[in-house]
From TrEMBL:
GO MF term list: pyrimidine- and adenosine-specific:sodium symporter activity
One of the GO BP terms on file: purine nucleoside transmembrane transport
Record's subcellular location: Cell membrane
Segments passing through the bilayer: 23-39, 45-62, 83-105, 111-131, 143-170, 197-219, 274-296, 303-322, 354-379, 391-412, 466-490, 573-592
Membrane topology recorded in Swiss-Prot or TrEMBL: Multi-pass membrane protein
PANTHER family: SODIUM/NUCLEOSIDE COTRANSPORTER, SOLUTE CARRIER FAMILY 28 MEMBER 3
Entry protein name: Sodium/nucleoside cotransporter
Pfam families referenced in this protein's UniProt entry, alphabetically: Gate, Nucleos_tra2_C, Nucleos_tra2_N
Native organism: Echeneis naucrates (Live sharksucker)
Length: 624
């Protein structure tokens, strides 16, 4: 009988290996065929395949030869350990010199404006250290490496053509992917479902994404991805495995769902680790909520970048604001948070679990907006007693948070508007703040007047980007109560500890978002720049022409003069509207090579014509 069982098990393993081999062979054949038919069209599939292959091979090598390699590297590890103090100081000095040199050259090219964001970042870090729970007990490795990872992600994503192009591509694919929820919405609510945009258009996206994430958990992809990201932060920042895994999980999950990843270990966490776990939840948004914000018209690439950049920042700030003073007594083990038995059950469970999230968002918005209207009415009534009826909650927030928005790099004329959004997000809800931001974006795209009755109707693209990063987190008073309740349900014996860490974690989570916004304010200029690679000084004047019609006057976009390899910062690049047609150029890169001009926008295709008029070159953008 035992021989039969062993034989049956061996046959099963062989069968699984054969099936896996056939599947891999078939997939490779599909990739090769797609590349042979149209390589340009198959680039995305090829990149995904190569990345997947790399990690599969890496895991296979690590499982088989990881211990052997680690033992062979023992002499090198011993040498590094003996000289670690000198190596660490040398690396820190080199990094500091590199940052200073880069800032000097960058400032020489782009001007001094981005220095405001840089010094704003330093000020936020200084304040966290100044009001630390245990001053001078923080880990410089955690702080510097965390900010370094955040800065590195920002530069890679926002200041390189490859990084921004990859993120913009990912954002467009995310928008396309989320649009699949329209099929379900139209079937359930009818063809006019967009008449009630928020409930019947936005909320179904949350249901769809929740179902997809549940499926990814069932097949094990999410656990694998979170562990890899957490391992990077653990190795570089020196944080514990538990808080690293929780911080990585917050990139994809909400502040009430990510603690499930570390459920078996919550009771044994130190106060500093509890603070770090809560901070990570406040510093990011969940993947499902991200879909809703994208549907509002907020730039997807900014939301994706903010979610990625805030993870290391939250750990760095959390460990600086509440340094570790206790011994760590927990280690990671295999974790499973999805109990579904098959793929269909996982999809159904994910969709069902989104019902509570949708209901919570809808009732919260109704309540918060009603309370805000009531509060504004009361403040207006009180202000009227002093001949100041325009007094409102948003006006108070604009003055309260105006210095903060300025040090993040927001232009002075937009500071009060962005400050209103930050106040709304902090005291009410980030959903309400993003809804207001979406209204500003729509007004800018509509091309109306910038001021109406001395009230600013929209802000620049640069300020919109900074606001997007600053708002990208659950750091508000309502989320504080939800986070304490969720953690208390998982570990009732630590409820008092969760409550004691809550307020400091909320502040640290908010600061993490503001730090990400500072880095964006310094780096985001690539999104709104004209990039020239001409060896001579040129002046470009851009005009807008509606295809098939002649406008009464040309819409002036920007006139700039650039030397070779120079990137000129523009805070606002906007086309005017003609005959109801309007477009904003988020990415407009012009390469001048001899007499040929090419341009590309991530919003709409354009034809470019070049006419030489004396010493000037005029570029006409014709929409189709």
């Amino acid at each position: 009988t035992e021989q039969k069982v062993i034989c049956f098990s061996v046959c099963q393993l062989v069968e699984i290996q054969i099936i896996n081999s056939e599947f891999i062979s078939g997939f490779v054949a599909i990739v090769v065929a797609a590349c042979a038919l149209n390589f340009q069209r198959a680039v995305g599939l090829l990149v995904i395949s190569l990345v997947t292959l790399f990690f599969l091979v890496w895991d296979w090598i690590n499982d088989r030869y990881g211990n052997w390699v680690w033992e062979k590297l023992h002499p090198i590890r011993e040498l590094i350990s003996k000289n670690w103090v000198w190596i660490r100081w040398m690396v820190n000095v080199l990094v500091l010199l590199a940052v200073v040199c880069w800032l000097t050259m960058d400032t020489a090219q782009l001007g001094t404006r981005q220095l405001v964001s840089f010094f704003g970042l330093l000020l936020l870090v200084f304040l966290m250290l100044l009001f630390s729970k245990h001053p001078f007990r923080w880990s410089w490795q955690t702080l510097l490496c965390g900010i370094g990872l955040q800065y590195g992600f920002g530069l890679l994503i926002l200041r390189t053509t490859f990084g921004f192009g990859a993120l913009a591509w990912l954002g467009r694919k995310a928008e396309t992917f989320m649009s699949f929820s329209n099929a379900g919405s139209e079937f359930v609510f009818g063809t006019n479902y967009t008449d009630h945009f928020f409930v019947f258009k936005v909320m179904p996206i949350l249901v769809f994404l929740s179902s997809v994430i549940s499926i990814l958990y069932y097949i094990g992809f999410m656990q694998w991805l979170i562990c890899k990201i957490g391992l990077v932060m653990q190795v570089t920042m020196g944080t514990s495995p538990i808080e690293s895994m929780a911080a990585a999980g917050n990139i994809f999950l909400g502040h009430t769902e990510s603690p499930l990843l570390i459920k078996p270990y919550i009771s044994g966490l130190t106060l500093s680790e509890i603070h770090a776990v809560m901070t990570g939840g406040f510093a990011s948004i969940s993947g499902t909520i991200l879909g809703a914000y994208i549907s509002f018209g907020v730039e997807p690439s900014h939301l994706l970048a903010a979610s990625l950049m805030s993870a290391p920042a939250s750990l760095a700030i959390a460990k600086a604001f509440w340094p570790e003073t206790e011994s760590r007594n927990v280690t990671t083990r295999d974790h499973h948070i999805n109990m579904s038995k098959n793929l269909l059950e996982a999809a159904s469970h994910g969709a069902s679990s989104a019902a509570a999230l949708v209901a919570n968002i809808v009732v919260s918005l109704i309540s918060f907006l009603a309370l805000l209207a009531c509060l504004d009415a009361v403040l207006s009534w009180l202000g009227g007693m002093l001949d100041y009826p325009q007094l409102s909650f948003t006006l108070i927030c604009s003055y309260l948070f105006m210095p903060l928005s300025f040090i993040m790099g927001v232009s002075w004329e937009d500071c009060f508007v962005v400050a209103e959004l930050i106040g709304t997000k902090t005291f009410l809800n980030e959903f309400v703040a993003y809804q207001k931001l979406s209204e500003l974006i729509k007004r800018r795209k509509a091309g109306g007047p910038e001021y109406v009755d001395n009230v600013k109707q929209y802000i620049s693209v640069h300020s919109e980007a900074i606001a997007t990063y600053a708002l990208c987190g659950f750091s508000n008073i309502a989320s504080l109560g939800m986070s304490i309740a969720a953690l208390s349900a998982l570990a009732p014996d630590r409820q008092s500890d969760f409550s004691s860490c809550g307020v400091r974690a909320l502040i640290a989570g908010s600061v993490s978002c503001f730090m990400t916004a500072c880095i964006a304010g310094e780096s985001i200029c690539f999104l709104t720049t004209f990039c020239f690679f001409s060896p001579t000084l040129i002046t470009l004047k851009c005009s807008v022409t509606n295809l098939g019609q002649t406008p009464s006057n040309h819409g002036w976009i920007s006139t700039v003069t650039c030397p070779s390899h120079y990137i000129l910062y523009r805070s606002k690049i906007t086309c005017l509207a003609y005959n109801g047609l309007f477009i904003s150029l988020y990415l407009f890169i012009i390469n001048i090579n001899q007499n040929r001009v090419t341009a590309q926008s991530d919003l709409i295709s354009q034809h470019i014509m070049q006419n030489t008029l004396g010493n000037y070159q005029t570029i006409k953008v014709i929409f189709r």
